[in-house]
Amino acid sequence: GLACFLSIPVDAMAKIISFATQKGGSGKSTLALVLAAPLATEYGLRIAVLDCDYQQSIVKTREQVDADNFEELLKTNPVAQYPYDVFALGLGQVFDFIDDPEKDYDL
């Protein structure tokens, strides 16, 4: 399964991976973050994580937990960047985001 989309050519059309269920606490946000990081850092793919959950767990993680660690990293590496982008979107905004030709993401 996983190897199939890890070999995506950079010039290929972007792929969409969704983690969706109505069950709270099932690990959707965690799974998305755990998958996004190596795809960005190890495989060099441009990743956009769209957090459409009303709780905004991924956005909160970036703002709280990741921000502290990132601040420390900047002390030793002033040009450091987050490995992937996170966007807080309502469900009605997802298709506009995906269809925007200005967005240049692999996944």
Provide a quick synopsis of the model.
The chain is mainly alpha-helical. It has four helices and two strands. The chain has one domain.
What descriptive keywords fit this protein?
107 residues; mainly alpha; 2 strands; 45% helix; 7% strand; globular
Write structural notes for this entry.
This protein is mostly helical and 107 residues long. It has one domain (2-7, 14-99). The protein is 45% helix and 7% strand. It has a two-stranded parallel ribbon with strand order 1-2. β1, α3 and β2 (85-88) form a beta-alpha-beta unit. The model is unreliable at 1-9 (pLDDT under 50).
Show the helix and strand layout.
Layout (H helix, E strand, L loop, with lengths): L1 H5 L21 H14 L6 E4 L5 H20 L8 E4 L2 H9 L8
Parallel strand pairs: 1-2
- Number of separate structural domains: 1
Poorly predicted regions: 1-9
Count of individual helical segments: 4
What does the average pLDDT come to? 77
Structural class, please? Answer: mainly alpha
Secondary structure tally: strands: 2
C-alpha geometry? globular
- This entry's quaternary arrangement is single chain
Strand order of the largest sheet: 1-2
Organism: Tanacetum cinerariifolium
Protein name: CobQ/CobB/MinD/ParA nucleotide binding domain-containing protein
InterPro entries: CobQ/CobB/MinD/ParA_Nub-bd_dom, DNA_Partitioning_ATPase, P-loop_NTPase
Domain CobQ/CobB/MinD/ParA nucleotide binding: 17-60
